[in-house]
Structures are given as structure tokens and as C-alpha cells.
Amino acid sequence: MTARESLGHFISLIAVALVCVGAPGARAAEETVGAPEWKLGDWWEFENDGRTWRLTVIGRDKDRYVLTRTPKGQTASPNSQLRLYAGIDGWVTREIDPKGVTKELDWVEWVRFPLRVDKNWVFRTDTRTVSGGRDAFTFHCKVTGWDTLEIGGRPLRTLKIVCSHSSLPNNPVNYHDVWYAPEAKHIVRLAPRYRGGWAYVVTGWNVQASDTTIAAAPPATPGVTSPPATSKPAAPSPPASAQAPAVAPPANVPTVPAADTEPPKIAINYPPAEAKVDREQITVLGLVTDNVGLERVLVSVNGVVLTPGGERVDGKSHSIRTPVPLQPGENVIEVTAIDRAGNAVQAIRTVTRAGPALATPPPSVGNRWAVIIGVGRYENPQIPPLRYTVADAEAMYRTLTGAAGFKKDNVLLLTDRSDRKPTLKNIKYALGTFLARNARKDDTVLIFFAGHGAPEIDQRGLERDGLAKYLIPMDADPEDLYSTALPMDELQTIFGRLESDRVVAFLDACYSGAAGGRTFASKKTRAGGVDDQFLDRLTRSRGRAIITASRPAEVSIELPELGHGLFTYYTVAGLKGAADGNRDGIVTLQELYEYVEAEVSKKSRAVGGNQHPVMKGELEGVLPLTRVGR
Question: What domains, with CATH codes, occur in the chain?
């Protein structure tokens, strides 16, 4: 090999080397170094041609590790982030650039585990050169002994490996010297003995203890493990995506069915997609679930891991609540989840923080309109009464017409005690006629409902859980919700009738049908198994957002000590100023949700409950709701 490879291919080879991870074996007798174990958040910095790069482990995809590569001192962005997929036995299988273009890479095996002095192995490559041609090489490698190498200003005990190669039998033989450091858990130096060969040196690293090991995938074929140390490829290896070795799970990882290929599910409740904020920090909120069991959840921003090693997870669900610092401009937030079978999934949000050069005044909210509904007592005795829903609606009405500065003529109140009662007809008039006739394109619309929600069996409907969901007016028949209650899908029709570009609905109700709280189920409907697919459907149109008091299967709590529903109590407090996180005198929708989600979750746990507000949908830019101190 006489020509230096392209930087992209070189970086792939660096990742090849970094995959070769191990821990020191017993130094007494056999001096053996075992197979690799990487952890979420592990990183290594290396130098080549005067440039320093950082590789960070961000996840696991079946039998491959997933890494990002960024220049030292820079953060990753969609325009610069490259993902490398590295096989556990020591070679990179592919790389995917920021545009999603996939490139299959050569098989290079500088290290073959387990390592011990005098071990030999052979591998072949078929490499594209800088000129566009291809060179085939056969590498012969041997561990020559233990050596001490100074790396990053400190001495490291390393195993030295010498690899020789030649493209043709009569061509000169060239050599690479390779030093693998068990303490650093990868190759720390790669040096050619000829001009133009691959070279790099590690300048820093951060690796974690074994209790944060990423779970390896179970064998694809029962009884098959990694190739024996003496195995030799008969020909140039195809990409590992086509011929990947099966990997046995570590002994300390709970076993899962080998057939489990379903990755976890990530629901990010905040921030919404393409969010714009004016704060130095936000809190990422969401829920991760898996059909078998979760192993790790990792949150990063701009390529920097915020949860070193990933949050250890027990069970099939995990709540995300991670503070995330933001730099001025665009920030890329990534949430990675891995289950016990090694299946991985990632969700990405891009958040723009307005800095000095980007700062803009809050958008005009035009005229502001609201419908406030609170149903406490129902005409049908089969529907249990609610103690604080009317008080909730009245508190929201006072807050909107007071601190928030809504004109009283623009706010319609429907409660047990108001002149206009919360019947089905009046609710449909308020939402579909009053708002539709008055709210213009540049106006802001706010809807608030406190009362019962309920599910009803509807196997032929749109819902994958087979349950239609309803808001329950005071004159509803619990055995005939279809004709006497307000279907949640009707909100989509109502949203479509509104010209306004900004519509926000607060729903202090729940739909699980479980006993207690602001929900019930008819005799024909069994509680449980409720999902929130309907909320995604309702907020599919831009400019529509819904904040619900709880997740679909949870109960919305009322507390006598507060005299309100838990969700409404903190919503009102937030609108009055408690949610003004950046202390600029304005409470925005984003600030309000972060505050309410944190406070409701904390208070519900304190009283033995489990309630997590959820926000779905997105609005353009920052939406100011109230000005503190009005």
C-alpha cells in the first residue's frame, strides 16, 4: 500500500481500531486480554495529520455499536454528524452520512480477541485508493509482546502487534505497528513503517465501569458464537451487514427471547419538533417503552452525552426528564434507547435557541379567545360527580381574564353555575360556532375542559386500542356515549373550522376508565390498554397543540388540600408566574408545560399517585400566554 486513503475511509479504520476493546486478563500465566465491552457515553480522542477527532458511543444496533465522530472542540450538527456502525469483533461494517447515504466499508482486523503473546491471524482487504482504483491486501498479524508506551503524558502497558502486508506476492512487504492498551480499552497508536500508510495516536479517552455495559444481542443462530481466534477468511470479506458473526450476550445481562427484534418506542413530549426557545436550558420530557424490557436510555445534545453511561432502566417503561443546556442557534437533541435484546432506536429533536444575533420579539398573538368548560355534576346518576372541576374552570377564567389579559367578552364560561350549562349542544356551540365565528387567522385560541373523559369499545374505529374516547358533557348517557358525548375526533373537526393559526387545548380529564379520578367506563367497556394515538391525529395539523392532564392509562387526580385538580392547580400557578423559567416577565406555552409536567409528576408521587401531563402537537415559534405582574 503506497497511497494515503481518503479521510472518510481513514476515519472508518480508526473506528475499526476503537472497536477492539478489551479488559486486562490475568497477567500471571496466560497474559490474555478478553473480548470488547463498550458502554454508552464512552469516548476516545485521536490525532491524525494535525487534526483531533472524538468518537463517542451512542448506542447499539443488534451486533453493532453505533458511534458519532466530531472534530475536537466542536459539537455535532445535522450537517457534520457521521454515524459509524462497528462490529463487536473488530471491524466497521458501514457508515451513514448526515444525508442518510450509506457506505459499506472494508473489513479490517488489526486486533482479534482474545489477545495473547505470539498469537497469529490473517485478514484480507480490497481497498479503494485515492486515484479511484482498488488494491487487494493480505495482512499477517502477530502479537509480539507487552510494551510500555507513553500516551497522553502517561505510561500505558500495551500489547504490541505487528501486521505485514503486500498487494502481490513479488511486491515489497510493508509493516504496521499496533499498540493495544487494556486500560484505555482500545488501540492507542497505529504507526506505519513506510510512507503513506495509515497512522494515528490516541490523545485522550473516557471509559466507564463494567456496570454500564451495553447489552449484546443474542445469537442469531442458537449455539453459534464468534469465530475462533485461529479462523482465517478464505477471501476478501464482504460487508458485515451481509455476513455478520453472531454474538453471545454477556453473562451478567438478563436473557431475552432470541426472536425479539422489536426496538423500544420513544415518545418525546417536549420539546416539539423544530422548537424555538429563548432560554439557556430546557428539560427533555418523554416516555420510553419496550415489549420485553429496557436496558439503557441515553440523552445527548450536539453530540455531547448528558447521561454518561445511560440511565439504567428496570422494567418495560422509563420516564425521561433530562435538563439540556442549549447553545445559541441550532441544537440537536438525541434520545437513544436500547432493550435487553440489544435492539436500539433513536429519536431526534432540533431546538433553536435565540441568541443575541437571533433574538426576535415574541410573535403577535392577535386577539385572544377562549372557551372554559367545567362539569361537576352529571344528570345521569351512573356518572360519578367531580368535586373540583367547576372550581378549576372558574380559576382558569379568572386567570385568563386577569393575569393573562383576555377580554371578558372573548371568553365563554360553561359550568354547573354559569348561565350557559356544559351540555353537549352548548359545548359544540362554544367550540364550533362561537370560536369559529370570531377567531381570525392571527388570533390565539385557548380551550380548557375539566370533567370526565371516558372510553367506549369501537373495534371498527380508527383507534388501534379499539376504544373511542370522549369528553363527557353534563347530559351524557354513559351507555350511549356515541350520541350523547363529545368524541375526541370531533375536536379535529372543530380545529378545522377555526381560522386561527394558534390553538391550544388544556384537558383536565383522563380516558383510562379506571376507578377514581376524572374518568369512568360504561358497563360494556373494560378499563385498561388505552393509548394516545388519537392525540397525535388531532394535532397533526401545524398550529394545534393539546396538553392533557395525564398519560392515557393514568388517572387525573383531584386533591382536597388544593381544592382543585392537580393539573389545573399547577396550570393556574404557572400562568400567574411560577412557570416563568427565564424570568423575562412572560410565561410561554413551552415554559408552562415544562413547569406543569414537573410539578404534577412530583406532587402525584408524593400522594401515592402516578400522573404525567402530556403535550402533543407544535406551534410556530414561541407562544406567550401571560405577562407576569399585569
Answer: 7-212 (2.40.360), 265-353 (2.60.40.10), 368-627 (3.40.50.1460)
